[in-house]
Specification:
Strand content: 15-25%
Distance between the termini: 52 Å
Number of helices: 4
Order of helices and strands: HHEEEHEH
Strand order of the largest sheet: 1-4
Shape: globular
Length: 148
């Protein structure tokens, strides 16, 4: 998924998607409400990991596959469409893999399948955290042992 000029920002599509699956729309159907609540929380957790900002190198996205499902209303009264989602997170800076997953999800929801991440996501600065007390001396001693 390569965005082009004129494609919307991810945050705009994310808001539109949430309006289609928001748990408050499913209060009369407890099972659907619960499923959408849990799935939205999972997706929001993934997105929080992608938010821009300063991080340490230990805060890269950890590799995993997240599976979830959503329910969306259809044009028929009291009829719903089940939308299964599987998002592969290979770790580190995986913006292209996640973009492909979100594009497929948005397409199933009837939204544009291309977008720009925008400045809210992936504009991160990574810093190496300082060693914990005592680790520096241990690392130096280990280095001396390795090269003696």
């Amino acid at each position: 998924m390569r965005p082009q000029r004129g494609d919307p920002n991810f945050s705009e599509l994310w808001k539109r998607f949430q309006l289609k699956v928001h748990p408050d729309l499913f209060m009369r159907w407890p099972d659907l409400h619960k499923t959408n609540t849990e799935s939205l929380q999972k997706l929001q957790g993934i997105l929080n990991e992608c938010k821009s900002g300063e991080r340490s190198v230990t805060e890269y996205l950890r590799p995993r596959i997240e599976t979830m499902e959503f329910y969306m209303r259809t044009d028929k009264e009291n009829a719903f469409m089940r939308v299964p989602v599987s998002i592969r997170i290979p770790g580190a800076n995986c913006r292209n893999v996640l973009a492909t997953s979100f594009a497929a999800l948005f397409k199933q929801a009837g939204l544009p399948a291309r977008f720009h991440w925008g400045p809210e996501y992936w504009n991160q600065t990574y810093t190496v955290p300082p060693p914990a007390p005592g680790e520096e001396e241990e690392a130096e001693a280990e280095g001396r042992r390795m090269y003696q």
